[in-house]
């Protein structure tokens, strides 16, 4: 989905699968603000068409990427292409005045995108969630791996814990997780904080360990949540995760264990 200056761009598809983008002349301003939500590869072609139309008018345009596509393919792995590099080059070639990325999965995105700035709304959501859950000094913020700990190292919360996980290099499946830093007091409430949830395997592991160590309630705060989470075990009634706080950057489906939080982009751009 592409939103230009608060107006959703209308697209259709011809029978042969080519994309038709309806003209949006009345939406164009001197300084434009484009929001891009990736759902499939065809959305990148729509972004190309919209930006080229704006170039015809010789106007300025800033881009907000709600979720950076291919962000997990952020390094060269034997047998796979380094596809994040190609997507960043594609966006760079569109010559946006400024690019904002909501919760990039790694620093590779901001390193490779020109005129790029990262936005981390999860850190801004934490205080209100902590207040809502009535946190005390016995409760804990939990980072599921060293990547998350590094990403949110400036969160400013002293009572935090960090997990260390081991994956099978061939299958990518988690083989082991241990609490590497911090402690879990009996009866503690815990909020696991990360940028992205897919099927939720990492958070199931972490949640089970936290409950076994004595946590009374375990919550998950992720900026991006894929629809895959709806078909996995993360949201089951007997899951160790009591509730998921997330944005609508990747899905909008209603579920009793999901609470959506709005990203107010005007606070960042």
UniProtKB/TrEMBL annotation:
InterPro entries linked to this entry: PRTase-like, PRTase_dom, Rib-P_diPkinase
Domain of life where this protein originates: Bacteria
Protein name as catalogued: Phosphoribosyl pyrophosphate synthase
